[in-house]
Each structure stands twice: as C-alpha cells, then as structure tokens.
C-alpha cells in the first residue's frame, strides 16, 4: 500500500524536496493536464488517473530505493510547484540514472528547477555514489536544455527513441562524478557565491 507521508528528503534555501502527499495529487494532475507543460513530454495531457499513477510509481520507487520523481514544495508558503528527482529510464537507458523535473507553468523562470535538480545531483553523487547522471529531452525543449547546462551537464549523444509507438529525436546530456566534484570545488572558491545550490539532506 502506498503511503502518502510527504517525508522530506532534501531542503534547499527555497524548497522542500519530499515524497508526495494526497493533497498534492490535484495540483499534480493540473500540471500534467497543461498542454504547454506537456509539449515536450509526449504532447498529450494526462488524465487524472494517469497522473495519480505517476505519483504512485514515484512513491513506490522512493520507498524501495530512496529516489524518485518526487514533489517540490516552496518553503515560504507551502505551495506545490511540481516534481524533480532521480529515476531510471528502464526502456532506454537501464544502466543509467536520469535526473528529471516538471514544474507548473506559473513557476517557470524562477530558478526552481535548477535549485531542486542541483540538490538531487549532490545527493546522487554523495549519498548514492552514482558514477554519472543523464538527462534526456528533445532539441526544441530549450528551457530544459538551459537547466541541464546550468547544472554543468554536457551533450553525451543524440538518439532516436521510441515512445508509445512514436519515435522522437532526443539529445542526451550527462555529468559524471568527477566533473561534478570539479564544479563543486570551483563553487567553493571564495570568489564564487553559493545560495540556490546549498541544501540539507534528511534521513528517510
């Protein structure tokens, strides 16, 4: 049975990265039904049932493995912003872990995706010892590509990937543990400023 505990996994200056609660589900469904949000995610609005199943899948992965595409909550007012986290694209890249994010359109352009993804990357490399992390999108998705670049990810390769009977062109970015350590060391320089990347891990 799925538990909707809302357990906090990570905290950043502005965000709580946590498991889903039941009261997140209507907000998550609204996000997943927004065609502008879904333009580069299959291009089809999800039904409430399909959206809820995504949340169930994320909860189950978190309970089993400590990762998943989990909820993002704004600390200042408790508003549900979307989801972010680590998971495996089993059909395409079974040997890799992908970082992904999806935010409601009202919260685009404010650095939330980068802030949340940075915390999850740090957690993946430090807590789970991942050798590398990938991120997959299609070339027109300039917003997600910009986030990947801000995370220090670089193009790994291009591929034609099949999804629900259709094939789409994808660009795959990656960052390995050594590259991440180098970026972290550079950010620790006194001449650099930190802020959105600072985070606190929580025990599950």
Key traits:
5 helices; globular; nine-stranded mixed β-sheet; alpha+beta; 204 residues; 9 strands
Overall description:
The structure is a single chain. The protein is an alpha+beta fold and 204 residues long. Helix content is 30%, strand content 29%. The protein is built from 5 helices and 9 strands. The protein has helices at residues 25-32, 48-65, 112-126, 142-150, 177-187; strands at 8-11, 15-18, 68-74, 80-87, 97-103, 132-137, 154-163, 166-176, 200-201. Strands 7-8-6-5-4-3-2-1-9 form a 9-stranded mixed beta sheet, with helices on both faces. It is globular and about 40 Å long. Residues 189-197 have low confidence and may be disordered.
N to C succession of SSEs: EEHHEEEHEHEEHE
How many E strands?
A: 9
Task: Label the overall shape.
Answer: globular
Largest sheet: number of strands, sense, barrel closure: 9 strands, mixed
Unreliable segments of 5+ consecutive residues: 189-197
Q: So how many helices?
A: 5
Helix/strand/pairing class, anyone?
A: alpha+beta
Give the integer mean of the pLDDT values.
90
User: Strand content of the residues, in percent?
Assistant: 25-35%
Distance between the termini: 18 Å
Instruction: Indicate the radius of gyration in whole angstroms.
Output: 16 Å
What is the strand arrangement across the widest sheet? 7-8-6-5-4-3-2-1-9
> What percent of the residues sit in helical stretches (DSSP H or I)?
25-40%
């Amino acid at each position: 049975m799925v538990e909707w505990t809302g357990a906090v996994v990570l905290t950043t200056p502005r965000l709580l990265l946590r498991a889903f609660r039941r009261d997140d589900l209507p907000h998550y469904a609204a996000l997943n039904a927004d065609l502008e949000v879904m333009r580069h995610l299959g291009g089809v609005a999800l039904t409430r049932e399909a959206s809820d199943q995504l949340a169930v899948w994320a909860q189950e992965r978190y309970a089993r493995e400590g990762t998943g595409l989990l909820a993002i909550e704004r600390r200042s007012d408790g508003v549900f912003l979307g989801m972010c986290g680590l998971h495996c694209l089993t059909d395409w890249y079974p040997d890799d872990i992908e970082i992904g994010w999806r935010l409601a359109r009202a919260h685009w352009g404010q650095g939330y995706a980068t802030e949340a993804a940075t915390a999850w990357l740090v957690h993946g490399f430090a807590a789970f010892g991942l050798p590398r992390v990938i991120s997959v999108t299609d070339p027109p998705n300039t917003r997600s590509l910009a986030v990947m670049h801000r995370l220090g990810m670089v193009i790994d390769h291009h591929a034609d990937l099949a999804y629900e009977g259709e094939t789409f062109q994808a660009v795959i970015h990656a960052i390995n543990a050594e590259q991440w350590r180098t970026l972290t060391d550079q950010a620790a320089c006194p001449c650099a400023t930190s802020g959105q990347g600072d985070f606190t891990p929580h025990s599950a």
